[in-house]
Amino acid sequence: MSLDLLQAERPLFSYPSYKGRNEKPAPFLPMSRKEMKQLGWDSCDIIIVVGDAYVDHPSFGMAVIGRTLEAQGYRVGIISQPDWHSKDAFMGLGKPNLFFGVSAGNMDSMINRYTAERRMRHDDAYTPNNEGGKRPDRAVLSYTQRCKEAYKDVPVIIGGIEASLRRIAHYDYWSDKVRHSVLLDSKADILLYGNAERPLLEVAHRISLGESVKEMVDIRGTAILTKQALPGWEGIDSQQVDQLGKIDAIISPYADINVACATQKLADESSSAQEDVTQPIMVLPPLAKSHKKKPWENTYIQLPSYEKVKTDKVLYAHTSRVLHQETNPGCARALAQFHGQRLLWANPPAYPLTTEEIDAVFGLEYQRVPHPSYGDAKIPAYDMIRFSINIMRGCFGGCTFCSITEHEGRVIQSRSEDSIIKEIETIRDKVPGFTGVISDLGGPTANMYRLKCKSPKAEQTCRRLSCVFPDICHHMNTDHEHTINLYRRARKLKGVKKILIASGVRYDIAVEDPRYVKELVEHHVGGYLKIAPEHTEKGPLDKMMKPTMTSYEAFKQMFEKYSKAANKKQYLIPYFISAHPGTTDEDMVNLALWLKSNNFKLDQVQNFYPSPMANATTMYHTEKNPLHKVSKDSEDVLITKGTRQRRLHKAILRYHVPENWPQIREVLKKLGLARQLIGRSASCLVPAESRDELKSSGRKVSTSNAQPALSRHTGLEQFKQPGKGKPTVKKRLTTKNKVGSTRKIKLGK
């Protein structure tokens, strides 16, 4: 998606400087009274409270927000990882003149603190020395409460990914229940969602002019609490826009509204049998001169209330479906949801930044190092991105388990080539420890830089959840020329030895332009390239909105071809998810067989983690599919729940670990596959039980079935049939030879 029709009326930095200030940027935003005094400040205008260590780098949200506000003349202080048990730490910089800005940090605090199995983590990559326990559960709630206790009359503005993904009633994995909007629970004044530079500067400007936060009800990219719908807005019930199994097509902004409405009604009535996720965009004849109001302007959708979605899973799935269809800044309508007597009002998303605006944000005076107060302490998250550069924002992939699209949007906001080159030169000249290697030129996805919709009119009214699933949209430009040119220019810089690409490559887009794959493989792979097929089976892949293995195999062939031509030994490292909604035990066994046939032994496997607001999380909670019509009779989704079953799916992927063999044998027996996949044959997934295992279980040892115990004198070669190094295909297993297929299991009754 491009920005041609999605530009805000007011440029980002067009507001007058606060109090006419034209001060030099602070070396670091102050974290203490002593630093404030050195800067000649008696108070801060805005204080940012954040759950991460303060790293003055454009990959850290608090630095971006702080420096953006500073560029407008505001004096900004940072309270980083405060002790949340009392209000004292929140008074350390004094009372802010305008407001507190609260963020949990670059990560959701619950995901940061707990594993996918709800176990407490003992480390924290965003904390000095990787120390855990430096932030509370639900940090936004705790921090806001303490800010209110410290200074009752100071407004609190919440934002960041934790607030963004909890802006309406949402399923909470850790408590296994539906919670209120975080705005209600935190008692904050305003919630900002998405990348919030634009709404934040407007809020700051209006507060600085003396406007009350209660009056700021119309700012895009914000959510507020009110008692009733805003004056002048027309409401429609959410079930009206999804009653036929699809979200209604948006009318062309160039069409005559009266004619269009009638045409839309007929189109809806004639398509009652359709249940597609996406529908063709309706293009009607353009208006001559008179331009009438667009149908989505000043229109809000009334979502089912918190009380209803809390108890009715079908309504919850329906609500999630509607919300995800209202994310295009070009045509999104406001959303309203009652929580008791209070109405949560979410304005349409903020307009994305233009190239000039995002260049300005990334071109601010960042020190690119942690705050000096941390001394020699190591901050792992900083070490990881120290020499990397973010070249774009947003993702149009729409993967259901990922929250990038929900937070950053589908619009790709790309920096200019000059801006990126300048940042590389800054790293080369100023960042301590630089050895000539840029660790990444990327972002949410490595190869979406400057990719956009070829039709601006279609772009403004599009409601597709993904531009690349189930197929790449014919409107999507997949020409990687801009990325290739950027790579070539970056490689030529003096003092730069290597440019690596560490961000995930969207391989289904990459294969559309072999020139990009060739450029990537020849110059930008450091021996290994990580990509994420996530699974091999169609069932879970469809629920993930991910491409089939055909795309992976095509990319793999190109990767190996160009690696061989360059005389380089390079390898693909695939990532997979276990226990994702829609995944059966059989699916996991087939994935494990694929891994074994390709000689992959995974050390780390990610169990599906239900993050707030993701479509896959809706599936996990409701067992319904929000990608299609949602009703009591609509598609049910098989869910892997419970610690035992989730661990089993993870164990199957690590088929090579002896500790997992008992679990895997159990599921293979349950599936009727013990004879084919348990034993000595190279085609088997796991060996049969050894004599020692049988003895320890108290069962009788059968010399015909038991395997010799592993010791320093016996290895895995004992399990292979003599003279047979490759898996054999038996009657109840089938093998397909076409590209992208995997060996499938046929279950007997």
Question: Could you explain the architecture of this structure?
Answer:
By secondary structure, the protein is an alpha/beta fold. Among the domains are: 18-154, no CATH class; 234-331, no CATH class; 387-524, Transcription Regulator spoIIAA (2-Layer Sandwich). The protein is built from 26 helices and 23 strands. The strands form seven sheets. A ten-stranded mixed sheet has the order 2-1-3-4-7-8-12-11-10-9, with helices on both faces. β20 (571-578), α21 (585-597) and β21 (606-607) form a beta-alpha-beta unit.
Short description:
This protein is an alpha/beta fold. Helix content is 31%, strand content 12%. The protein has 26 helices and 23 strands.
Indicate the low-confidence ranges by residue numbers.
243-291, 704-742
Percent helix range = 25-40%
Distance between the termini: 48 Å
Architecture of one domain, CATH level 2?
Answer: 2-Layer Sandwich
Write the CATH fold name of one domain. Answer: Transcription Regulator spoIIAA
Radius of gyration: 27 Å
Strand order of the largest sheet: 2-1-3-4-7-8-12-11-10-9
Provide the structure class: alpha/beta
What global shape is seen?
Answer: globular
Instruction: Report the top-level CATH class of one domain.
Output: Alpha Beta
**Please, how many helices?**
26
**Beta-strand share of residues:** 5-15%
Mean pLDDT: 87
Number of strands: 23
How would a textbook summarize the main sheet?
Answer: 10 strands, mixed
